[in-house]
UniProtKB/TrEMBL annotation:
UniProt xrefs under PANTHER family: EXOINULINASE INUD (AFU_ORTHOLOGUE AFUA_5G00480)
Record protein name field: Fructan beta-fructosidase
Keyword Hydrolase: yes
GO cellular component annotations of the record: cytoplasm
Residues of the Glycosyl hydrolase family 32 N-terminal domain: 50-356
UniProt record, GO biological process: sucrose catabolic process
Any Pfam family the entry gives: Glyco_hydro_32N
Residue intervals of the Glycosyl hydrolase family 32 C-terminal domain: 392-491
Keywords (A to Z) from UniProt: Glycosidase, Hydrolase
Gene Ontology MF: a single term: sucrose alpha-glucosidase activity
Record's signal peptide: none
Record family assignment: Belongs to the glycosyl hydrolase 32 family.
Amino acid sequence: MKTNSFKFLFLIAFLMTLLVGCDKKPKTATEKPSFLKDSITGEQYRPNFHFTPKTGWMNDPNGMVFYEGEYHLFYQFYPDDNVWGPMHWGHAVSKDIIRWEHLPIALYPDELGYIFSGSAVIDWENTSGFGTKKNSPMVAIFTYHSMEGEKAGTIDFQTQGIAYSIDKGRTWIKYQNNPVITNPGIKDFRDPKVFWYAKENKWIMSLAVKNHIAFYSSKDLKSWKLEGQFGADNGSHDGVWECPDLFPLIDQNGVEKWVLLVSINPGGPQGGSATQYFIGDFDGNTFTTSEKEIKWLDYGADNYAGITFSDIPENDGRRLFMGWLSNWQYAREVPTYSWRSAMTIPRELTLQETENGYIVNSIPVEELQSILSKGIIEKNNEFEVLAATYLLEIDKITSEAFSINLANRLNEVLKISVIEDKLFVDRKLAGIGSFNDVFPAIHEVPLNGIRIHKIEVFVDKASIEIFINNGERVITELVFPNEPYKSISISGDAELVTIYPIDSISEN
């Protein structure tokens, strides 16, 4: 009897070990990890109005969805270091898309792999059977990345999995029959973005497959069928395609077109990572376009892997976007220590028909008005500002050549200039840049005949985001000044220059 009891207890202990091992949650630490020991270094660059993790590493935004009054932001997260590692899904929520509340980690790695990028949807009709129509489940669709498979030299180490929540995203259950899409023998097979295609009552998934996008359909989020492919002969192919997002937009004349976002790394306009887009049509199976020109959503160096929110209410109707405010060329080396990376400010994407065809504009969301202090109108071309973070708005510009210098007492200066149909951002002397050879650079942005009449520059502690003519051109750049830029000089003619100090949203 004693022997049988011992075997039974051993079996129970063994099974418990397996169950605990399915989700690799962190063990209780007796000592802070080395990257947390000096929690002050780098805090001078903690943004005032951009989302950051409290500690640890963050990259792609994932699973952005709106449900019952809350914006959900999931993100690629490694809590145990300030560089990339085993990927989890971090989680935060917001009532206004500006001020964020950190929540516990949503998804942990398990025996199928790390939790790579993906999306989340509200299954309103309970097609998955994970909830009820009265309590619609939130379903996350993500890529499993098996490091064991990659290290073994296989090429089928990326598959697609799903998980669901029936308590507004606070706790998650992984589907017992994962993966829902196995790998067909392709190394780069990731980043599912899913939406409900009401015209045919089915779910559509856009999936990045090395150098193109594959489209899958499903009736229940569990069984998927390959429908069509796009992109092998379109757009930029100087790097691997990632993080697709397909959605409709309506232009100023009421015409609907479909937009496909595709991130690429490397191959961006400033080197490294960036996001291109295509405008065309979608027939329920695949996307097509007649356009040949390569179009970039952001011409700066530091906006990557961005996607849009799912399930924005119809009475709102906006297409809301956030991206990762960094670049894979130097993301692991930037001079912050207890944490790394931020998200861009949220932006509304709109479709505009121009003389040269359609473009997607990126506009700062109207909710940002809530953190702007009263505007201060400046009468001189050179002036000081009291705030460390602010919006500089220059309107009714009449000069074809124009320049803006943002400087501090240490003679560090960020230069923005417009010369002969090009815009330049010079961060060579803007602050710390020695951590990577390519970081201190002059970035050139083609204007292609755009006549600038308005410039908005959002200045945070370690970034600038420039919006030209309500988003016709956007430039997002990291900067690391040793002191805030409080001296501003403007060369050129403009009727109105206004400074709006920006309040801090940071919980930290």
